[in-house]
Amino acid sequence: MTNDDVADATRMIAMALGRGRVPARSSEYARLVQRYHRDPDYARMVHMAAKGFDLTVLGVDHRSGLILGTTAESSLSLSVTELVPNTGDRPLYLLAQLAIATLTFPRPQDLDDDEFVGRVTVSAVDDYVREHALAIEQRINAAGEDQDPPTGQPGLEALWRAYLRRSATGRTKGDNEPFGSSRKIVERALKHLVDYGFMHKVPGDGEGTYVTHVKYRVQIRELAAGEMLKELAALGISRLPSSDLGRKTGDPAPPTPGAPGPTPAATLAD
Question: Compositionally biased, Pro residues: which spans (predicted)?
Fold first, then answer.
């Protein structure tokens, strides 16, 4: 391999890290994607170069280009702490991201379908989370359990209660939607996904529909579940409802919590 080959590999990584960079908008990027698929030696070099930046190659797609994930050591990863300054909003933001991932990919096979496109709205995500929060609250009340978990162990029940305590919308004195309302938190979560190339918002759509990109599907499938669980664990949440987060939108909410579900957390680029 020559110096030009090395330059091509690092250039491809740089393009993958740039916001809004996709092969359809760059003939050079399209050339590098084609080379990756037809030249095994070059593909290996791209993987090696990515490793040098503490990145992993999750896939290469003709629409999204090079799809990268971060390792624990990478300085290029983003955490919920950086995205959500308010500590009280962070667990609810993560919960919103979990719901977004679940609603956009309601079946496990959707994550392996290259042609699958997920769609979601702010109201659908907020309604979905509230539905589960109410189901868990009803279970707790029916069982006669303590209303508050032990100090220092907020647990899943406290997380759902915290979401229910937030108003869905409401208005401020300036006739704006409160920044801490649950729908505003969901909107922020979706905006971050748009900003980093995981989704786009359908223009002119009154309902505010967000549509997934290939990169979001790959990130959810390969990395995001584990990363989000780490984020939640750092916030004191040790349990998540797997059966809740893997069902179809119209199915009834199950009464008991279990284990993990996915949401994006690592490299955010298109």
Answer: 252-263
User: Which of 242, 237, 238 lies closest to 257 in space, CA to CA?
Assistant: 242
Q: What is the β-pairing status of strands 209-212 and 199-201?
A: antiparallel
Residues 136 and 215 in one domain: yes
d(CA 200, CA 181): 23
| Structural domain range at position 61 | 3-70
On whether residue 118 sits in a domain, the answer given is yes
Q: What is the edge-to-edge ordering of all strands in the sheet holding 119-121?
A: 119-121, 209-212, 199-201
Domain contains 102: yes
> Does residue 55 fall inside a structural domain?
yes
pTM for the model stands at 0.71
Evaluate if residue 239 carries a pLDDT over 50. Answer: no
Assess whether 107 and 36 both reside in one domain: no
CB 267 within 8 A of CB 58: no
Question: Same structural domain for residues 177 and 85?
Answer: yes
In a domain, 216, yes or no: yes
Three-state DSSP state, 84: coil
**Which of 98-112, 139-153, 184-198, 253-267 is least confident?**
253-267
The DSSP secondary-structure symbol of 112 reads G
C-beta neighbour count of 167 within 10 angstroms? 14
Residues of the chain with pLDDT > 70: what percent?
Answer: 73
Report pLDDT for 150.
Answer: 42
